[in-house]
Amino acid sequence: MAKIIVVTSGKGGVGKTTTSAAIGTGLAQKGHKTIIIDFDVGLRNLDLIMGCERRVVYDFVNVVKGEASLKQAMIKDKRTDGLFILPASQTRDKDALTQEGVEEVLKGLAEDGFEYIVCDSPAGIEKGAQLALYFADEAVVVTNPEVASVRDSDRILGILQSKSQRAEQGDEPVGEHLLLTRYDPLRVKNGEMLSVEDVNDILAIPLLGVIPESQAVLKASNQGIPVILDKETEAGQAYSDAVDRLLGETREHRFLELPQRGFFRRLLGVPA
Amino acid sequence: MVDADFRLKGSVVTVIVIELYRYTADTFVEQLEQQIQRSPQLFDQAPVVISLEKFSVDESLPEFNLLLEQCRACGLLPVAFRDQGSRFLKNVQDTGLSLLPRPASRGKTPPAVKTAPGPDTKQDMAIKTEAKKKPSIRPSKLVTRPVRSGQQIYADGADLIVLAAVNEGAEVLADGNIHIYGPLRGRALAGIRGDDKARIFCQKMDAELISIAGNFLLSDALDEKVRRQPAHAFLQDDTLCVAAL
């Protein structure tokens, strides 16, 4: 049975697509056949982050409309075995997706033997975002440590509780996971950023992971390489931990405190 | 002796009334959805009576079955029509629902058939909650999960108990008291049908707005002594007071 994970946030620019790419890649690395679907029709980004933008022929909307088969539209990732990408359409808008069409595609993927289907939600709470979360079993709520993002995450959690298929059918509620991204312990210490505790106090859902603010994320995005593949960076390691936790393993949370900087590093001004 | 399996009783219930002024299929559904979106919980599977009393004689007749279907599609449960006289009796009978007479107490008011809605409103209907008579005590509504931004929870004719936070941008309403065993960061409105004895209790008072029987207080008017403290709000001589617990 395929597990459907939606990566959502309400607010834009908090790292949904980066997270979808990282989690999808992480799951595939662990040997699970995984596909990442870009629900952001009209603002297609996932293919860029995954570095497969030049291999897009058919897209999600083509499949939903029956203009192409799943097999034709799915792009096999070149770096990670068992990982596929279903890109969004750049030329259509979100009305091109229908609930029935999305359901068909998800069913087709489950029959195809996919274990995890990662749905990369668009920002906002309108149709596109609601379709992305409707069929979800689990939700990864991506939040930045600032008030607007926290409030929007709160809103999307409310929608998960009322508008998802599980909510409508009265099934077990969608599993909720908080992923705090762009976390900077120094700014938290200076009181410029909300702490993990502050965010948890308001959202009150289990913490999947904290991704530290990192130069590596932007670099990875621009190069089209999911940041999780960069094992040298804190962000990459933090995403690996988050994937392990998603699979039910226990991992201590890292990178929450300011690193102890050695004398030489301080002297040389090397960033931590 | 055989015990009776049932007993017949008269009872007065509170229902939502859709007061129809005019009807066009598209705009009706659009406006109904808008209304419902504002407080989905209030309307979910709610029984409604469709009142034709103010339906303008100049307007073309609604398609009654389509109207009912539209209501049902929006999650409402139409239970009857209401009208004075019997100008729509045949149409209503065809739908299988009953046609209720107007409430007797209002018998004296002249028929308002031609009344158009106020000039500023383009609404085709007004949704009113009619409190005919105070309903008997209902069990309190209990909420165990956080009430999140954008959510609205209403305890109809009852107290509301929340065993979690009421977050910023969320709204909790009750005809009776509101008890929040967690922080209140959003809006809480107690006694919304005018019960001035209603109170609001919370473990951490950080509300955007609190209101009792229509008397409200915004967060900047909150006394620093009670802010983020366990507190309760009540009406004293029409003034809303907030005191630490």
Query: How much of the sequence of chain A is in beta strands?
Result: 15-25%
Secondary structure category of chain B: alpha/beta
Strand neighbour order, sheet with most strands of chain B: 6-8-10-12-15-16
* CATH structural fold name of the largest domain in chain B: Pectate Lyase C-like
Any idea what the shape of chain A is? globular
Biggest interchain interface, per-side counts: A-B, 14 and 16 residues
Please tally the helical runs of chain B, counting DSSP H or I stretches of 4 or more residues.
4
Distance N terminus to C terminus of chain B?
A: 57 Å
Rg of chain A to the nearest angstrom?
18 Å
* Secondary structure tally, helices of chain A: 13
Q: How would you sum up the major sheet of chain A?
A: 8 strands, mixed
Q: What level of helicity do the residues of chain B show? A: 10-25%
DSSP, total strands of chain A: 8
Which structural category fits the helices and strands of chain A? alpha/beta
User: Class of the largest domain in chain B in CATH?
Assistant: Mainly Beta
Radius of gyration of chain B, in angstroms, nearest whole number = 21 Å
